[in-house]
């Protein structure tokens, strides 16, 4: 395999404002050779994650700021092509964090085997990866959504929001989603069975739209976007409402001093609201339960999964930029290669 080339996409320029293709660099290097107790992995799918944006401007997020010149380290589904590790065989399909490159070296730590019996192997970094786990743990374990509650989900057609809303529906909640565009809203009502959808792109006043969709107020808000929508949600929360801050995609491209932030903090006093930040990696004790439960829901057609797959590693930067223009519809993935037989 020494004649093969490893394409790698590096983070090459600190981001200012919206991400640009020029913030990344594609390089070619000789194929790496695994040492003792190591594996050579061939990436099959890699993820594009909006949450990565906050660490690409030189600021720490829930993980340290990304260093220039490093490969983009996103989730991956890979196949073992060379093994010098006793726990893995050539041909094994594994999930890990090996990012935007054709091949990667691993010592086996952080890898999990992919069960192809649970559907497409890409599900390992979608519904059974961080997006699905975030939705399950957020709705079931932290917010503890009850039957009959009104649940509001922003970015409701996205990787996390679409699953979070469906889980709330399975639990008997009244679910209102917010998404951008008629197609996403119609799909979410018809396929995900959301009770109401708000197209924020067509609404001149998001607060009034929320009042109409949630006339009794909002019990639970699962926030993926921040900004104006967060403020509108706070204005429409019921007494003792709960807010879970999962993402802030509307704010990531704005410098901290210019971000909208919360306007009416006094509402938290008057309404006795509870708001918390959330990183699913802090709750690994729920992961097995989440995967097993969601696998059953998928089998019984109670949970529908949609992926937005872009072809070709070289297109990962453009796909990442497209996240912030609302071009994705479902879990954002890049298809790099097919598994060998």
Structural notes for this entry:
The protein is α/β, with parallel strands linked by helices. It has 2 domains: 5-121 and 306-335, Medium-chain alcohol dehydrogenases, catalytic domain (Quinone Oxidoreductase, Chain A, domain 1, Alpha-Beta Complex), CATH 3.90.180.10; 130-283 and 291-297, Rossmann fold (3-Layer(aba) Sandwich). The chain contains 8 helices and 15 strands. The chain has helices at 130-142, 159-170, 182-190, 206-213, 227-235, 266-270, 287-299, 316-323; strands at 5-11, 24-30, 39-47, 76-83, 93-96, 103-106, 112-113, 150-153, 174-179, 196-199, 218-223, 237-245, 274-277, 307-311, 331-335. The strands form 3 sheets. Strands 3, 4, 5, 6, 7, 14 and 15 form a 7-stranded mixed beta sheet that branches. A 6-stranded parallel beta sheet has the order 10-9-8-11-12-13, sandwiched between helices. Helix 1 runs parallel beside helix 2 and helix 1 packs across helix 7 (287-299). The model has no long low-confidence stretch (mean pLDDT 96).
| Total DSSP E strands | 15
Radius of gyration: 21 Å
The residue fraction in helices comes out at: 10-25%
* Global geometry: globular
From the 3D structure, determine the CATH topology of the largest domain: Rossmann fold
The domain tally reads 2
Element order: H for helix, E for strand: EEEEEEEHEHEHEHEHEHEHEHE
Indicate the structural class.
Answer: alpha/beta
Tell me the name of the CATH class of the largest domain: Alpha Beta
| Number of DSSP helical runs | 8
Which spans of ≥5 residues are poorly predicted at pLDDT below 50? none
Distance between the termini: 17 Å
Proportion of residues in β-strands: 15-25%
If you average the pLDDT, what whole number results? Answer: 96
């Amino acid at each position: 395999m020494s004649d093969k080339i490893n394409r790698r996409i590096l983070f090459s320029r600190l981001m200012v404002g919206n991400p640009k293709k020029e913030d990344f660099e594609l390089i070619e290097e000789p194929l790496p050779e695994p040492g003792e107790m190591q594996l050579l992995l061939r990436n099959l799918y890699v993820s594009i994650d909006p949450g990565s944006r906050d660490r690409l401007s030189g600021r720490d997020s829930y993980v340290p700021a990304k260093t220039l010149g490093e490969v983009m380290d996103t989730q991956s589904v890979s196949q073992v092509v060379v093994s010098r590790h006793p726990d893995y065989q050539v041909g094994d399909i594994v999930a890990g964090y090996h990012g935007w490159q054709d091949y990667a070296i691993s010592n086996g730590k952080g890898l999990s085997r992919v069960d192809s019996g649970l559907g497409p192997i890409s599900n390992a970094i979608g519904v059974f990866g961080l997006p699905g786990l975030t939705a399950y743990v957020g709705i079931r374990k932290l917010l503890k959504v009850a039957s009959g509650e009104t649940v509001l989900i922003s970015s409701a057609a996205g990787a996390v929001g679409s699953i979070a809303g469906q889980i709330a529906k399975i639990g008997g909640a009244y679910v209102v989603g917010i998404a951008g565009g008629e197609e996403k809203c119609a799909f979410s009502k018809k396929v995900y069975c959301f009770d109401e959808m708000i197209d924020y792109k067509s609404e001149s006043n998001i607060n009034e739209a929320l009042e109409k969709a949630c006339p009794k107020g909002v019990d639970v808000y699962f926030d993926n976007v921040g900004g104006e929508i967060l403020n509108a949600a706070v204005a429409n929360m019921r007494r003792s409402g709960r807010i879970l801050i999962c993402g802030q995609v509307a704010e990531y491209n704005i410098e901290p001093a210019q971000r909208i932030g919360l306007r009416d903090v006094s509402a938290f006093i008057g309404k006795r609201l509870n708001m918390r930040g959330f990183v699913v990696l802090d709750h690994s004790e729920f992961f097995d339960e989440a995967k097993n439960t969601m696998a059953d829901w998928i089998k019984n057609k109670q949970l529908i999964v949609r992926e937005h797959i872009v072809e070709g590693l070289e297109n990962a930067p453009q796909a990442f930029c497209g996240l912030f223009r609302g071009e994705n519809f479902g879990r954002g993935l890049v298809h790099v290669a097919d598994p060998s037989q």
